[in-house]
Amino acid sequence: KKKVSFTKEQQALMKVIIDAYNKHQIPQDVAKKLLQDKYSTEENFLLLTEMATSQVQVLVEFTKNIPGFLSLDREDQIALLKGSAVEAMFLRSAQALNKKMPIGHTEVLEERIRKSGISEEFIKPMFNFYKSIGELHMVLEEQALLTTITILTPDRPYVKDQPAVERLQETALDLLRKMCVLHHPQEPQYFARLLGRLTELRTLSHYHAEMLASWRVNDHKFTPLLCEIWDVQ
Length: 233
Ligand SMILES: O=C(NC1CCCCC1)[C@H]([C@@H]1CCCCO1)n1c(-c2ccc(Cl)cc2)nc2cc(F)c(Cl)cc21
Prior knowledge:
Blueprint: H1 8-23, H2 30-36, H3 41-64, H4 74-97, H5 105-114, H6 120-134, H7 140-151, H8 162-183, H9 190-206, H10 208-213, H11 224-229
Helix pairs in contact: 1-7, 3-4, 4-6, 4-7, 4-9, 6-9, 7-8
The structure holds the ligand O=C(NC1CCCCC1)[C@H]([C@@H]1CCCCO1)n1c(-c2ccc(Cl)cc2)nc2cc(F)c(Cl)cc21.
């Protein structure tokens, strides 16, 4: 059994990130709504834009709690948020689908999302990603750190001081590496698999503007915040 020990700083960092992650759950539960009723493609599109808008606000609050983030250059803070918002949204969606649910609920939820109005060509890559996240059986700490690492990606467009972001990301990566050894001692490759999902996430996120534009609705209305953050409208 591998002994894993955390420094005082790492214990403090984990606590801050977990508290922030727990505080910033999506207000009402999308999954519950989808399981309750069948929605039209218009209603689903509206639900997605509403949820995504509130998720961006939640993401900003979460990010402000990442130690060191507010010390970054102000414009770099914006560049990191803009560059990671879609990925964070897909990560959250994957976690919503992979939550433990009563028998049969996941299948209903999956079906409702497949039929929500999203165009056929994107359903496979999206669910492949959701499945690959589900197979990892991440614990909460790993989910929160993975979101943190996604936000602290140095090579986002327009980031000026990349080394400063790299230093923050490194700290989160060191902590995640130890968390993986602690929670998945039998899988030495687990940490590498986790990081591999970020590559899949970035690829999926490249499609998001097209996924939204091809939604089977007559009028694709977005909130001002989504127009800002997503490359839509
Ligand atoms: O609202 C959603 N996700 C929110 C976003 C903010 C964070 C919380 C989760 C969407 C909506 C729900 C209505 C039907 C269409 O999908 N959604 C997507 C999704 C995301 C991007 C695109 Cl372009 C298409 C679909 N995948 C999901 C998987 C899920 F398990 C659940 Cl519960 C919802 C999911």
